[in-house]
Amino acid sequence: MNEQLDISYIINELGEDREHYFNAIAPPIIQTSNFAFRKVEDLRKAFEDEMGGYLYSRGLNPTVDILRKKLAALDGAEDCLAFNNGAAAIFAAVLANVKSGDHIISVRNPYTWAQRTFDDILQRFGIITTYIDGSEIKNFEAALQPATSFIYLESPNSWTLELQPIKEVAAFARANNIITLMDNSYCTPLYQKPIEMGIDLSMQTATKYIGGHSDTLGGVLSGSHQMIKRIFDTEYLAVGSGIQPFNAWLLIRGLRTLPMRLERISNTSREVINFLKTHPRIDKVIFPFDEGFPQYALAKEQMSGACGLFTITLKNGTMESITKFCESLKHFMMAVSWGGHESLIIPKCASIQPNDFDATKIEHQYIRIYTGLEDPEYLIRDLKNALEA
Ligand SMILES: *Cc1c(COP(=O)(O)O)cnc(C)c1O
Q1: Rounded-to-integer distance, Cα 195 and Cα 67, Å
Q2: What pLDDT digit, counting tens, does each position of 11-37 carry?
Q3: What is the Å distance from ligand 1's center to 111 Cα?
Q4: Which of 228, 256, 284 is the last residue in one of the domains?
Q5: Cβ(117) to ligand 1 under 6 A?
Q6: How far is the CA of 168 from the centre of ligand 1 (A)?
Q7: Residue 205 beta carbon below 6 angstroms from any ligand 1 atom
Q8: pLDDT at residue 1 above 50?
């Protein structure tokens, strides 16, 4: 195996020129805004191509570059950019690839701030988005318009866990000259490789599994060097949404333990799901690697793992019973986000006004669970007590 592709090499060595910083094991945080030049000619070169060297930390920064090299290698991509958060990565990638009059095809219920970008911002510039059920290629074909220039994917989606047939969508997009972006936050590049499957741009929030400790935000966008450079030269520098050196350093630290955390979380979620599936108060457990999942075969084909995030419903769930269950948990904390050390729960009904809650709508009943790094028995005991409260 090529050493460059060995995950242990990527995480522990790639991008780290330790002889340049006293052979320190941990990389330095190069906390500087600007970089000095001795020669006018060198400064001229930096102005001409800011991606060619260090000029100003809104562009490139050496600490951030260590992270970029590792993340690009994990994605199997030529290059990547690290953003201050995942939403910023989505925004830059979409904006750089659409123009007035274009049409976007997006999976239905994408990440909230992707949807807000499409509906509240791009629409003002005459860019229209069609939301589709992305589970079948025929739905992409049916949504195609002459102006379609961009396809937005999220597989699995973080609430309904719906998947898209990635290879088929990528081939369809290539044949029609459409750029594809996939939000790969659920799997991370350890468990799914969109670029290898033909996707142009792979995005993930690094706030979740990469950081892993709920103490920083970050976002990653990977793709060909040409596409990444174009985004760097325009949206990345203009919006100024790149990651700061200290946050990049935290993400490098998070990466060191990423494989073992994902493995631990995968095992825990399996145990917790097995418990929930046999509990009389649970109606549904929605998880891509559960045999009853409608797209189980596709999940097994395109994902090498499924981790800590899944959705459940209670039998005869009402606003009251869902609220009581969530509030009875002592160790699962009620909070947004996921991917950290701590287990979390969030009920869909928290984003629905009490009078609008409709028990006949399955999506109103969703309760999203994330299992962190705690002992499985500890978590199961907490769920059991809350279900029986
Ligand atoms: C959290 C999240 C994002 C956004 O990432 P931030 O770092 O919070 O901006 C994007 N996609 C998915 C699926 C997420 O869960």
Answers
A1: 18
A2: 999 999 999 999 999 999 999 999 999
A3: 7
A4: 256
A5: no
A6: 25
A7: yes
A8: no
Q: Of the candidates 234, 256, 278, which is a domain's last residue?
A: 256
DSSP per residue, 106-140: EESS--HHHHHIIIIIGGGGT-EEEEE-TTSHHHH
Q: How many domains does the chain have?
A: 2
CA of 181 to the centre of ligand 1 (A): 14
Strand order in the sheet with 179-183: 79-83, 219-223, 201-205, 179-183, 148-154, 103-107, 128-132
Question: pTM here?
Answer: 0.96
At residue 151, φ and ψ (nearest 5 deg) are: -120, 130
Ligand 1 near 219 CB (within 6 A): yes
Mutate which of 90, 113, 213, 338 for ligand 1 pocket (most atoms within 8 A of beta carbon)? 113
Q: Is the CB of 183 under 6 A from ligand 1?
A: yes
Distance 86 CA to ligand 1 centre (A): 5
Q: What is the per-residue pLDDT across 109-132, written as a single tens digit (0 to 9) for each?
A: 999 999 999 999 999 999 999 999
Residues 297-330: pLDDT tens digits?
999 999 999 999 999 999 999 999 999 999 999 9
**Residue 358: C-alpha distances to residues 54, 255, 349 (Å):** 55, 42, 10
Q: Is the pLDDT score of 2 beyond 60?
A: no
Q: Are residues 323 and 305 in the same domain?
A: yes
Q: Using the 8-state DSSP alphabet, how is residue 242 labeled?
A: B
Same domain for 252 and 269?
no
